[in-house]
Specification:
Elements lengths: L28 E5 L6 E5 L11 E6 L2 E2 L3 E3 L6 E7 L4 E7 L9 E4 L2 E8 L5 E5 L5 H4 L14 H6 L8 E3 L11 H5 L3 E6 L22 E5 L1 H9 L2 E5 H9 L9 E5 L12 E7 L6 H10 L1 H13 L10 E4 L1
Parallel strand pairs: 1-17, 3-12, 3-14, 4-11, 14-16
Antiparallel strand pairs: 1-2, 5-6, 6-7, 7-10, 8-9, 9-10, 12-13, 13-15, 16-17
Helix pairs in contact: 6-7
């Protein structure tokens, strides 16, 4: 068992970090990893349907990314919306924090917001006079490793084609490869897990057991639960869909809503997920640990080294990996 965070590190040439998407969503490459024998195939994502078997069901996260990054007027302070607490209150990250102490009011997003509370982790609870107009004033919350501001292209491409209920502050990126044509060709159902900013937070502990996982809310609609329970094999699209599935107890999956802090890492016995489509993740991340729990750490890191040799594109706008 690999209990140290350092066991999940690898060296990635920076030029392999994809900061722009492919011209078409399904132009991405797909590394196929067979768990039974460690065999690797190099395919294109558009071939994904050919790897499904009769009785399979593909589970996708249909959460919509909100334009969570706001600037005060005039610009000077950045407010990153983390969680909507009610109609006018949000939990936020702010930068620079020294300018936003309790009681400070700032003009932002067509209204004003006041710092109500500073939380122990540095986040702010902010009360807006009116709901902020994110469509007009917000920008897409691109990952920090993009090292650029979001633009109009990101409004479309940093969003899945099936995105529905708003609430995520990071895209469920394994779903970015899907087109309406591919979606129509596969048996699928939708779950919802609103991705939080914690997905980008590094693991700061030396041992996995000491890491405290962030919390995310989810919904399993009744129709989705029925479809999941009737499938012979569940294929999760992304670590977020996997977290929803694996947060459910053994046995039939029940519809409903909830929240999860599940931290999936080796050793772990999967209750519901049998196959996984996912992007390539940051070294030492909880996402890489989840993948390693399904495919085992050595096999996963071998596949990552192979992807680097073959010049795959990594991270949110990068290529994908299918574990079967």
């Amino acid at each position: 068992m690999s209990a140290l965070v350092s066991d999940y590190h690898y060296d990635l040439p920076p030029e392999l970090i994809a900061t722009r998407p492919t011209e078409r969503r399904d132009d991405s490459r797909m590394l196929v990893l067979h768990r039974s024998d460690g065999r690797i195939e190099h395919r294109m994502f558009r071939e994904f349907p050919s790897f499904l078997r009769e009785g399979d069901l593909v589970a996708l996260n249909n959460s919509r990314v909100i334009k969570a990054r706001l600037l005060t007027e005039p610009p000077g302070i950045e407010i990153f919306l983390l969680e909507n607490l009610d109609a006018t209150r949000w939990k936020c990250l702010v930068k620079p924090g020294r300018k936003l102490r309790p009681g400070v009011r700032v003009p932002i997003a067509g209204t004003h917001a006041e710092v109500v509370e500073v939380l122990p982790g540095g986040e702010r609870i902010m009360a807006f006079d009116d709901p902020p107009d994110l469509g007009k004033y917000g920008s897409m919350p691109l990952p920090p490793y993009f090292k650029r501001a979001a633009d109009a292209d990101d409004d479309e491409r940093y969003q899945t084609v099936y995105a529905a209920p708003p609430g995520s502050v990071a895209a469920p990126t394994a779903g970015l490869h899907f087109t309406p044509r591919i979606l129509a060709a596969i048996p699928h159902t939708f779950l919802t897990l609103h991705v939080g900013a914690g997905t980008f937070l590094p693991v700061k502990t030396d041992k996995l057991e000491d890491h405290e996982m962030h919390e995310e809310s989810y919904v399993i609609p009744p129709a989705a639960a029925a479809a999941l329970n009737s499938a012979s094999r569940l294929v999760a699209v992304g670590t977020t869909a996997t977290r929803v599935l694996e947060s459910q107890p053994p046995g039939p999956i029940q519809p409903g809503s909830g929240s999860t802090r599940i931290f999936i890492h080796p050793p772990y016995t999967f209750r519901h997920t049998a196959a996984l489509l996912t992007n390539f993740h940051l070294p030492g991340s909880t996402l890489l640990m989840l993948v390693s729990a399904l495919a085992d750490r050595e096999t996963t890191l071998h596949a990552y080294r192979e992807a680097i040799r073959e010049r795959y594109r990594f991270y949110s706008y990068g290529d994908c990996m299918l574990i079967v």
